[in-house]
Specification:
This protein has 350 residues and is of the alpha/beta class. It has two domains: 7-152 and 321-335, 3-Layer(aba) Sandwich (Rossmann fold), CATH 3.40.50; 155-318, Dihydrodipicolinate Reductase, domain 2, CATH 3.30.360. Helix content is 31%, strand content 19%. The chain is built from eleven helices and 13 strands. Strands 8-9-7-10-13-12-11 form a seven-stranded mixed beta sheet. Strands 2-1-3-4-6-5 form a six-stranded parallel beta sheet, with helices on both faces. The radius of gyration is 20 Å and the shape is globular. The termini are far apart. The structure holds NADP nicotinamide-adenine-dinucleotide phosphate (NAP). NADP nicotinamide-adenine-dinucleotide phosphate is lined by residues 13-19, 39-42, 65, 80-83, 85, 103-104, 153-154, 186-187, 189-191, 318-319, 322-323. Residues 13-19, 39-42, 65, 80-83, 85, 103-104, 153-154, 186-187, 189-191, 318-319, 322-323 line the site of NADP nicotinamide-adenine-dinucleotide phosphate.
Length: 350
């Protein structure tokens, strides 16, 4: 039997936390061959020198960012770079025929104005209408036909998945949604900063950027698409003293009273054929430890009957379903591979 041709994949920003997670997943993906890795500080060094856990597994030498070279070497390029850089390299990657999954915010927005009000001027606005928002549970068909996917932010993934089934059915007050999310420190990336030093984050728990985080307009744009009406939210992120994991608790007024079983059935029906969303039974609440290292999003709920509020809970691993795992799920769809290929990592462990 002739061997199946593998997808050649490049990771730009491979030495960051999201990029390294991509390398970890892609090294175990049976349909992928790693073709090229880039780094800024570590260009010229083997990847395994930066991450010794990969010794003998990925000793590929990191290179400087060169979009023409990456597109020649790879069928799919993951841009796991800080926002603003992808908009500079993605046009050349597409021009040269590569498919792109961008992990930054640069291609997540349909509205250039919304992007620019949260980030900076966009130098490749013409590509926003070509880009598809990479949440496979909602936009799988479009992703399969796309050559440019804007991989969602970690907070938006943890928030949109639980809310979408209810907003799609007009069951929640569109200006009543309040979100309280907690992220592990790897969400801030590997770059040095005072706020992520061990003594600043260990044994400490704090909110940051209340009602002003850059993921808020991204969530509002996608939730409004799902609801087919404008949705405005209040979003408060928190930094939790853990390496990875994200837990969101979401409060919203119900348009009509829903019983617990009814609300749980709505979630179960919406996600019945979606391999990475697990709707938990009554009495169980998501925990970050139950999804760690996996591509799962666990969701549960509670009905606050006297207040007329639905409370939704979700847990993801910010580096997997919130970044690299979801990016590989998107690559699978874009490349005609089974959606779950290479993503069968089991969650949990202590
Ligand atoms: N961390 C998460 O949980 C998460 C979740 C969802 C999405 N994302 C997104 O994924 C992207 C990467 O995030 P991250 O957390 O992995 O960041 P990170 O740990 O800071 O890594 C950034 C990567 O980009 C490279 N890089 C930085 N500046 C560069 C430059 N001027 N030229 C070339 N390469 C440069 C870095 O190289 P060096 O290592 O050499 O500095 C590193 O490989 C961001 O857009 C982020 O928003 C992250």
């Amino acid at each position: 039997m002739p061997e199946e041709k593998k997808i050649r994949a490049a990771v730009m920003g491979a030495t960051g936390y999201a990029g390294a997670e991509l390398v970890r997943i892609l090294c175990g993906h049976p349909g992928v061959e790693l073709a090229l890795l880039t780094s800024r500080q570590h260009a010229g060094a083997p990847f395994s020198r930066v991450y010794p856990a990969f010794a003998g597994i990925c000793d590929m030498v990191c290179e400087a960012v060169d979009p023409e070279k990456a597109a020649a070497a790879a069928d799919v390029v993951f841009t796991a770079l800080p926002h603003k850089l992808p908009m500079e390299v993605v046009p050349a990657l597409l021009e040269a025929g590569a498919k792109v999954v961008d992990l930054s915010a640069d291609f997540r927005f349909q509205s250039a104005g919304a992007y620019e009000s949260a980030y900076q001027p966009h130098s490749a606005k013409h590509l926003l209408s070509r880009a598809v928002y990479g949440l496979p549970e909602l936009f799988g068909d479009k992703i399969a036909a796309a050559d440019l996917v804007g991989n969602p932010g970690c907070y938006p993934t943890s928030v949109i998945l639980p809310l979408a089934p209810f907003l799609a059915r007009d069951l929640l007050g569109l200006d009543s949604v309040i979100i309280d999310s907690k992220s592990g420190v790897s969400g801030a990336g590997r770059g040095l900063s005072l706020g992520t030093l061990f003594c600043e984050v260990s044994d400490a728990f704090r909110a940051y950027k209340p009602a002003s985080h850059r993921h808020q307009p991204e969530m509002e744009e996608v939730l409004s698409t799902v609801a087919k009406k404008p949705v405005s939210i209040t979003f408060v992120p928190h930094l939790a003293p853990m390496n990875r994991g994200m837990l969101s608790t979401i409060y919203a007024k119900m348009q009509k009273p829903l019983a617990d079983e009814e609300a749980r059935q709505i979630l179960a029906d919406f996600y019945q054929d979606k391999p990475y969303v697990r709707v938990l039974p009554k009495g169980f609440l998501p925990r970050t430890s139950d999804v760690r290292n996996s591509n799962f999003c666990d969701i549960s709920l509670a009905v606050d009957k006297p207040a007329g509020r639905l409370i939704l809970f979700s847990a993801i691993d910010n580096l997997v379903k919130g970044a690299a795992g979801q990016a590989v799920q998107n690559m699978n769809l874009m490349s005609g591979l089974p959606e779950t290929q290479g993503l069968t990592m089991l969650p949990g462990g202590v």
